[in-house]
Amino acid sequence: MSAPAFSRRDRDKFVAGKNKQNAVKAMVFTDRDGRLLWRSPTRPGSCAYITHAGKLGLVKFLANGPAVEILADAGYQGLGAQTGGRVVTPPHRTFKKNAPDWYEEMHERQRKGHSSRRIRVEHGIAHLKNWRTLARHLGRREHMDDTVQAIASLPSHQQIADRILARQT
């Protein structure tokens, strides 16, 4: 999101993905209606999602905590085994090349099933990204965590106001 100066010593910590873009990551939990429940502190973009979850203590909490189902994207593959099946990710491809037709059909059906269950979560995340300051953050990285926290509280407040308004009509 915010590009560090080219000469900064820690620049490589914020470079992520195959496009080598500067980024920060934050984990977001929503309910099944897409309302924001929790967001993590931001981390450099080069930090893997599973590493981020482990450093926050979420893996240990989910493994020993309440029996909940968390629908996650493919960046969290492997976390389901560490949490006793509480984290559900899209199916992993068994065949990389020359997969039989029956496998392709089954994999596509499972992938679409997971995606259709997870669409509300994606809408909640997209609602955060609609805010211009997160879409194109031009401030300092040191203030990014505060910016994400402020923006994350706005949709929650807006959603509460929408529910109150709906009850009045």
Q: What is the rounded distance between the termini?
A: 41 Å
Helix content: 40-55%
Beta content: 5-15%
Uncertain segments are: none
Strand pairing plus helix content: what structural class? mainly alpha
Sheet having the most strands: 2 strands, antiparallel
The counted number of beta strands is 8
Quickly count the helices: 6
Average pLDDT taken over every residue: 78
- The shape is globular
Query: Which sequence of strands runs across the widest sheet?
Result: 1-2
The SSE order reads EEEEEEHHEHEHHH
Rounded to an integer, what's the Rg over CA atoms? 18 Å
Report on the architecture of this protein:
- The protein has 169 residues and is mostly helical.
- The protein has a domain at 1-47 and 107-169.
- 46% of the residues lie in helices and 11% in strands.
- It has 6 helices and 8 strands, in the order E-E-E-E-E-E-H-H-E-H-E-H-H-H.
- The strands form 4 sheets. It has a two-stranded antiparallel ribbon.
- A hairpin with a 4-residue loop joins strand 1 (15-16) and strand 2.
- The model has no long low-confidence stretch (mean pLDDT 78).
